[in-house]
Design goal:
Blueprint (H helix, E strand, L loop, with lengths): L8 E3 L19 H5 L10 E7 L3 E2 L5 E2 L1 E3 L7 E2 L3 E5 L7 E6 L1 E5 L6 E5 L7 E5 L6 E3 L7 E7 L5 E10 L2 E10 L6 E5 L1 E6 L5 E8 L2 E8 L6 E2 L7 E6 L6 E8 L1 E7 L7 E4 L5 E7 L6 E8 L13 H4 L2 E8 L7 E2 L6 E8 L3
Antiparallel strand pairs: 1-5, 2-7, 2-29, 3-4, 3-6, 7-8, 9-10, 10-11, 11-12, 13-14, 14-15, 15-16, 17-18, 18-19, 19-20, 21-22, 22-23, 23-24, 25-26, 26-27, 27-28
Length: 351
Amino acid sequence: MQPPVSYLYICINLGFVVRLLCLGTLLTNSCEAQASQTSIATPASERIVFSRSDQLASALGGPVLFIAERDLQAANFQSRFLQIVSPDGSNLVDLKTMGTDPSFSPDGKQIAFSSNQSSNRFQIAVISPADRKVRILTHLTDSDAFTPAWSPDGKRIAFCVFRLSHPFHEPSLYVMDADGGNAKKIADHAAEPSWAPDGKRIAFTSSVDGKYDIATIRDDGSDRKQLSSGAGENASPAWSPDGATIAFASDRKGRSGIFLMNPDGSDLRAFVFSKKEEFCFPAWSRQGNELAFTSLIPDANQARVLGEELPKCRRWSGEYQIYRIGPDGKNPRRVTPKAGGLEPSYGIAAN
């Protein structure tokens, strides 16, 4: 099946590169070196699902880091595949399913994700890790769906729909039942949802007038509130399990780092950042005692399509890896294998 003509960027990997980080207090060792100095306790049943990044060969015959889907017809490529791993990097399981934006259900029995395997549009689908059966939940014909997020009770899924995909812009936030029924739009210029643990509000990336900020809204679409402000791009919110903190990615210090704030936008503070890498897509462990994030070493050549309504972590090219870090914001530990990965989501290993 020919991929759709669009500007979704597909991540690939060109091999692991040891990186020197500047995490909060100017750490001088690499992530790998720091990983051997500390241990983060996690339940044995905890797992992380992520999108594995593979290599692409460009139409010009050389390796590339990202390639626009409009050019994939002329390329020999492998796309993103869903994998599950223990937080310490062991027990790697390949679900052998192409997809992006994976999200564990609260009971661990399903993973929601975005895929265009069975359609010329990206749809929200779910897969059972136990038997790898896939069900398509949305059936869009003129738009594309991404970034699914389960409600805490597992009965609903929030996701975003890009009405236009040449390039991707005009995203809207939707909520639907977990079986795909009763889909309702609750916000315009909104993407990357994350539910509050009480299920009453949803944090999301707001993209109004070309400015990316963190906002929240009630699950019925009322009471929209913007939380972040000031210079820079703020995106990819993740609500902590205890409801007290929202983690998000922001480039207010130059490169994108992981920041924290209260649910009302107060007490905004830097958590982990680097002078050499972009940190994106934060995700809390189920107990809230650690945070996973995606590290990106950007390619030297970056391009932005006019009118594209995507935060830079979703449009930039480079090498991706997933790390996990404790509550002190120090000593990151690499999770993903050398093949790389992005967009982590914690869950349990359900039978």
